[in-house]
Amino acid sequence: MTNLTIRTLAMRITNEGDAYAYLESLRWPEKPVCPHCGVMNDHYFLTPANGTDRVTRTGSISERRVWKCKDCRKQFSVLTGTIFHGSKVPLQTWLFVFFEMCSNKNGIAAREIARKYGVAPKTAWFMTQRIREAMANDGLGKLSGNIVMDETYLGGKPENWHANDPRRAKKGHSTNKMAAIALISGDTGEIRTKVVTNVTGTVVQDMLRMNVTMSDSTLHTDSAPLYRTVSKEMAAHHVVNHHAGQYVTEFSDGTNKVENFFSQLKRSIDGTHHCVSKIHLERYLSEFAFRHSTHDLTDTERMTLLMSQTPGRRLSYRPLTLG
Ligand SMILES: [Zn+2]
Question: 76 CA distance to ligand 1 centroid (A)?
Fold first, then answer.
């Protein structure tokens, strides 16, 4: 597949039918897979009878491509069970937003999506949050080898806020700092992230055990005492002492890789998204971690990979607003 650009995507997807067919090619590169029973087969493609058009409940013509499973006999479309399911936004628009979020290094703000694609701001925000949910890095495989780990604090200090900052008016809002921990494979660049209220030895230990094959891995950190206990489960632990001005040693490249990730994240939140609530920070981290982990891929490959992560990650509006 040639690498996509907004221009080639626009040439390829000129209507809803094209959008469905394109999503099918991404989700089912070989044959359609029934989302109900998981069987891959030459399922029946349902063309409307008598050459008529399929109409929706409101009477407008539907370009939705519907399949029927040869095994369980249930109907499905390429949207079934994905983050796109049940949305009123045209699939064409979804795919463009999906592409932008996969290819823009700093992400794209919801208000810019709203302006560019003519959707309501609330809808744009919901779309971006759904796509971020697909980018979540929980439940992915374990990392091994050189593991670089660090933590950071986000959210900013109230004393640094501009005199006119609206957050000043809201008492008790956004004043709590948030912590994020990240670990990154020094070998592949794959990253795992987590937002926590407090960074403790136990938090660090849980994060490592969940994401890393401990006995096969070497941990690289700064000299924070947090890592001392858990590092005993690992093959080795190399420390750089930042207080002593030490950033690399003969054993370790230090924690630069994670620090660079955090500084890009912070710049982007300040520049693109301005203020991120604690509730949604986890999703922003996922978005950045996803693009960082896949930096070797082309935009098309990244989009295909993300598409493969969308089934089962359907997110409805309610848990989002409740956060
Ligand atoms: Zn089936």
Answer: 9
The letter for the amino acid at 268 is S
Q: How big, in percent rounded to 5, are the helix, strand and coil portions of the chain?
A: 40, 15, 40
* Tens-place pLDDT, residues 14-55: 999 899 998 898 888 888 989 888 888 889 988 765 555 666
CB 290 within 8 A of CB 185: no
pLDDT digits over 93-128, tens only? 999 999 999 998 888 889 999 999 999 999 999 999
Task: Report the separation in Å between the CA atom of 45 and the middle of ligand 1, taken as the mean of its atom positions.
Answer: 13
Where are the strands (E) in the chain, listed by range?
A: 44-46, 66-68, 75-76, 143-154, 178-185, 191-196, 212-222, 236-240
Which protein residues have a CB closer than 5 Å to ligand 1 (ion)? 34, 36-37, 69, 71-72
**Cα gap 192→212, rounded to integer Å:** 10
Residue ranges covered by each domain of the chain: 6-135+313-322, 143-276
| Entry pTM | 0.79
How close is the Cα of 145 to the center of ligand 1, in Å?
40
Backbone phi, psi, residue 89, to 5°: -70, 135
Tokens 């070998």 locate to 187
Which amino acid is it at 287? E
Report CA(41)–ligand 1 centroid distance (Å): 9
Q: Which amino acid does the sequence have at 181?
A: I
pLDDT confidence tier of residue 323, bands split at 50, 70 and 90: very low
User: How many angstroms does the Cα of residue 131 sit away from the middle of ligand 1?
Assistant: 26
Q: What is the fold of 143-276?
A: Nucleotidyltransferase; domain 5 (3.30.420)
Asked if the model's pLDDT at residue 267 lies above 60, the reply is yes
Ligand 1 center from residue 210 Cα (angstroms): 33
For 128-159, what is each residue's pLDDT tens digit?
988 988 888 776 789 999 999 999 987 655 55
